[in-house]
Amino acid sequence: MTFLQPFILFALPLIALPILIHLINQNRHRTVPWAATMFLLQAKRMARGMARLRYLLIMLARMLAVAGLIFAISRPMSGGWLGLTSSGAPELTVVILDRSVSMEEEDPGTGLSKRRTAIEKLTTALKDLGRNTRIVLFDSATGHRHDLTSSDALTELPEAGPTSTSADIPALMQEATEYILNNEAGRTDVWICSDLRQSDWNPGGGRWESVREQLRSRDGVRLYLLAYQDLAPDNLAVSVSGVHRRETVEGAELVMDLKLTRTTPTSEPVRVPVTFIIGGARSTIDLELTGNQLVRNGHTIPIDRELKRGWGRVELPRDANSSDNAYAFVYAEPAVQKTVIVSDNVQVAELLRLAAATPSDRSLIYEADVLPSSQTAVIEWDKTALVLWQAPLPSGVVGQQLESFVANGGCVMFFPPESPDDAELFGTRWGQWADPADNDHFALARWRTDTDLLSNTLSGTPLPVGQVTAFRACDIQNEQATVLAQLEKGPPLLLRANTDPGAAWFCSTLPATEFSNFVANGITFYVMLQRAVARGAAAMGEARQYECGMLAANVADQWTPLDETSSSVLLSQRTLNSGLYETPEASFALNRPLKEDSVEVLSNGTLEQVFNGLNYTRIDDKAGSSMALASEVWRTFLILMIVALMAEALLCVPEKASTAAEAKIMKRETPVQITPFPKKGSAMST
Fold first, then answer.
1. Rg of the chain's alpha carbons, rounded to an integer?
2. Domain check: are 364 and 460 in the same one?
3. For the segment 306-331, what is each residue's pLDDT rounded down to a tens digit?
């Protein structure tokens, strides 16, 4: 409980006022011995126990009445689940808002999403609690800080609206922590509004330890986790991949892999109407889903032979979350899936070339060129999808070229050189080679199956990643990176540096037999490289696919929307929401990250580990819930005061009736206290 006028609580000692008045009244009476009252006083002693209890109850009622009045004037706040402190408004309030796709799941009764519910409740609570506090917003879509003039700005700010992005909660917490430490604010409240999706929280990442250490050393910071972890059981999501155009005898067709996912599995077949919109023309087919997903590889849609470049969208009927009911795509002549291998090791270079050049889709063209580290100047960056770099990390012009290549959507995967040095690129450097201590190999401890290169297949089948072993591994130093696979008692096997819109991965071992069993367990290694090539190629050619949140906002300033849905998106929010756009050079499709379709949430134990040693309060809420985080309860204390006064009045009635006879006997102008004569030899009191 907290108070909007906490200084009024300094009047709480006034509760003792009835006791003080009672003591003063006792000293007003004179003691006069009078024999006629001896028998009357003896009779009263028999009822003294009940009278004393009544007097105590009267005193208690009067004290409660005073206390109720004081608490009512101080305007107390309370909530259904929330136990706030009683130290008044904080000096700084930091709001960390999860704007990911999964936060758009709505309550069917009210139509309010999880994100909207959280914003409205925080706005109401901060309007009362935060009148003298600075409010700062960190949103997951932009990752930037926004200083708010009032709590009402939360509902009006575009940076608090819906997006088709994912969230990086550790990165937001790190930004917020640095801001708190740099500003040296006094008491600070940090509100985290999220649905606890594991893909957004990345509890195994190294950034959480840094956040915990910094916040533990900072007094006056309290965390409030506003959690929306309930899932709509029948929510459906759709996605497509591998969209490309191919010629047929009859004309041309689009080929794609279609995937439907359901939050919870169903034992009975569920009919799902799927609508395809190709250049404005609509067609619908009915599919039957059993379990929690349906995959159709190589689904084809006939198109006009003259259409060399175009756009489309796949849609599902509206359900609990409309943000995952559509998936946009563009198509054109497919780009060459080109890989450049930079290595001075002939054996390693050949193994990398075989994995990259072997086509996974026979309708596409694959190329792989091998270059020594001294000839990187001849790389055609604008025609390359993936760079496999097995050499010392470059610096100077080549390092800048690699950074520019990734910034434009390209992908690069680094493998450790034979002799690592101190060079750094993408915030990462190589450590020293390590050998297993207690065994002849490093086993794989854990890996991410929800996203990136080692994720499960479209059908949900996991890759045989657990069979991968490393006989030697090189340490990778980057605390900010995302670990995709971790060796047991060793360094990470695979991690991804924080780069957008392209990707930079670091693999700690080599495919040669003396370093790993990548060749013997060829499926994992082959799929890993093919996915890297496909991601790089998706940002090339005339048809480019991007995940929302990958591109800078100003990139889309000159884009022309291709449909009405895209036209309705604010210019500043284009790269954060699904849409279809074009320029004279290329067409662009922006979609939600597919890891947002994962429904795995943090367990209670994992959450405790994430906030280990931190002072935090968890508040479980639901989309559309009407229960307020905090509300004024002064009326309750006023009612308490009225009840206390009524009880005092009722308790005083018997006391006046019992003393009526005494009043007739002892009627005097001066109040006196009557006592019988003292025994012989005793002193008389006056």
1. 36
2. yes
3. 888 999 999 999 999 999 999 999 99
